[in-house]
């Protein structure tokens, strides 16, 4: 299906067009990864977020890798998302819509097209779906065959996530078990244990009152990634036999990045033609007019749950840059979901030249997001973060007070720094406090 005519930014320079065409045909022949009906269901859940009745938790890797598509790594991310969701649901008393940045996040937009080391210039790493991270000409040359490998890794990831979501692992009665490998040394893990005790008591109480324990057995989990590589997204775009509508069935939700959100570019054109829920990332230089124009193109029917605006302003800019957007877009009555990505506006370089993010900046941006929405009477709809279930040392600060000098200890990301599990849980507790305070300002933010 080829319905994109406008220029596309951030696309790889594939050296072999015939091979690319063959890969596209293979992808077209493969089964979809998700169902259109599931995308509609997610849209319904996001409509509840837009109405202020639920909260979105979206997160996962900055860049998934083929080598990292292992059971342990996938389970670790799923478990972290689950624990964060439980903290938010219980401590903030709000239904949480859970979306993984998983099962397709294999392509990355980059600031520069090439990288130079010791005088040698090679294409920049654009994610495992495009090229390899090793600094060799062979690895860095884009290979269309990687799109197929991305599909198979996404398929395996989603398969495991679906099993984890419904096969007993996510049963709320396992709330303690999710923490077992983690609790001892981590302040956030210990705090989580207390919360798990409370939940266990509440479940026992409800059971005693006659509630059906099967109610707690499964969770709804949705997948998402940036719809960046159009050579991957197009062949996975299908016509729904129920109604003839077009969906990109590579994931439930697709987002458009800050670098490719030009209303006259191919990514927005593509997203305007599919019926999935769509998110668009918006940085500190976006004007209300930019967002309104995107809303008009992407959600002309003002369908609740269709459009999420994910702001990533940076802690220092959010309080000045966000209010005008929220005010004007709300006045237009476009029913958008407002989400805060506190990662992408807070990337800094450490003294040793590594990309990092300070946990306090992440927290401060989320706090600013809540302050702005509180002042305007609008709903702070959710957070979008980059995390992993592993004990990496990529972001500084948090409960374990990771210092810049610790970064090299376990710095494993192939692109941007992620929160580790402890920092993610810590963030969930802080967000729950902010949410409670948002609803009842008499309650303390850190309670
Ligand atoms: O994840 C976001 C972008 O892909 C990333 O920040 C780009 O990084 P770069 O500026 O090193 O290219
Ligand atoms: C590239 C990303 O973000 P942004 O478009 O906001 O820079 C991302 O989320 O991976």
UniProtKB/TrEMBL annotation:
Cofactor dependence: Mn(2+); Co(2+); Cd(2+)
Residues that, per the record, bind Mn(2+): 62, 344, 386, 416
Catalytically driven reaction(s): D-erythrose 4-phosphate + phosphoenolpyruvate + H2O = 7-phospho-2-dehydro-3-deoxy-D-arabino-heptonate + phosphate
EC number in record: 2.5.1.54
Leader sequence segment: none
Pfam families in UniProt: DAHP_synth_2
GO biological processes: amino acid biosynthetic process; aromatic amino acid family biosynthetic process; chorismate biosynthetic process
Highest taxon of source: Bacteria
Manganese among keywords: yes
Annotated binding of phosphoenolpyruvate, by residue: 101, 258-259, 281, 312
GO molecular function, one term: 3-deoxy-7-phosphoheptulonate synthase activity
Pathway info: Metabolic intermediate biosynthesis; chorismate biosynthesis; chorismate from D-erythrose 4-phosphate and phosphoenolpyruvate: step 1/7
Keywords, comma-separated and alphabetical: Amino-acid biosynthesis, Aromatic amino acid biosynthesis, Cadmium, Cobalt, Manganese, Transferase
Comment on bound cofactor: Binds 1 divalent cation per subunit. The enzyme is active with manganese, cobalt or cadmium ions.
InterPro entries, sorted: Aldolase_TIM (IPR013785), DAHP_synth_2 (IPR002480)
Tagged with keyword RNA-binding: no
Annotated family: Belongs to the class-II DAHP synthase family.
Protein name (database record): Phospho-2-dehydro-3-deoxyheptonate aldolase
Species in which this protein is naturally found: Trebonia kvetii
Higher taxonomy: Bacteria, Bacillati, Actinomycetota, Actinomycetes, Streptosporangiales
């Amino acid at each position: 299906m080829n319905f994109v005519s406008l220029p596309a930014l951030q696309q790889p320079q594939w050296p072999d067009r015939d091979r690319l065409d063959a890969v596209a045909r293979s992808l077209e022949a493969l089964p979809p990864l998700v169902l259109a009906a599931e995308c509609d269901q997610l849209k319904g859940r996001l409509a509840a977020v837009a109405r202020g009745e639920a909260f979105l938790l979206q997160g996962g890797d900055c860049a998934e890798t083929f080598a990292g598509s292992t059971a342990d790594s996938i389970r670790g991310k799923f478990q972290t998302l689950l624990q964060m969701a439980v903290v938010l649901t219980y401590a903030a008393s709000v239904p949480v819509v859970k979306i993984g940045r998983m099962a397709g996040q294999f392509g990355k937009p980059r600031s520069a097209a090439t990288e130079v080391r010791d005088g040698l210039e090679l294409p920049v790493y654009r994610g495992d779906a495009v090229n390899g991270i090793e600094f060799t000409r062979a690895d860095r040359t884009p290979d269309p065959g990687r799109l197929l490998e991305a599909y198979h890794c996404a398929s395996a990831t989603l398969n495991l996530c679906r099993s984890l979501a419904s096969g007993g692992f996510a049963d709320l009665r396992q709330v303690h078990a999710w923490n077992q490998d983690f609790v001892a040394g981590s302040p956030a893990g210990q705090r989580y244990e207390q919360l798990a005790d409370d939940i266990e008591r509440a479940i026992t109480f409800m059971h005693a009152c006659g509630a059906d324990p099967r109610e707690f057995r499964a969770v709804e989990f949705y997948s998402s990634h940036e719809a960046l590589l159009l050579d991957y997204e197009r062949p996975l775009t299908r016509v729904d036999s129920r109604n003839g509508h077009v969906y990109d069935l590579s994931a439930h939700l697709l987002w458009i990045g800050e670098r490719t959100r030009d209303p006259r570019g191919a990514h927005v054109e593509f997203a305007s033609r599919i019926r999935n829920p769509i998110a668009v990332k918006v940085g500190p230089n976006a004007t209300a007019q930019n967002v309104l124009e995107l809303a008009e193109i992407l959600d002309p029917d003002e369908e609740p749950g269709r459009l999420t605006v994910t702001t990533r302003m940076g802690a220092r800019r959010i309080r000045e840059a966000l209010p005008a957007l929220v005010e004007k877009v709300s006045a237009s009555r476009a029913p958008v979901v407002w989400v805060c990505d506190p990662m992408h506006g807070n990337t800094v370089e450490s003294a040793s030249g590594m990309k990092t993010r300070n946990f306090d900046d992440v927290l401060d941006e989320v706090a600013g997001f809540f302050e702005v929405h509180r002042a305007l009477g609008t709903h702070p709809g959710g957070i979008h973060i980059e995390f992993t279930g592993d004990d990496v040392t990529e972001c500084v600060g948090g409960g374990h007070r990771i210092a810049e000098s610790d970064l090299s200890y376990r710095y494993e990301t192939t692109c941007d720094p992620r929160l580790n599990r402890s920092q993610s849980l810590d963030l969930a507790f802080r967000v729950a406090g902010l949410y409670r305070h948002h609803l009842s300002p008499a309650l303390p933010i850190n309670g």
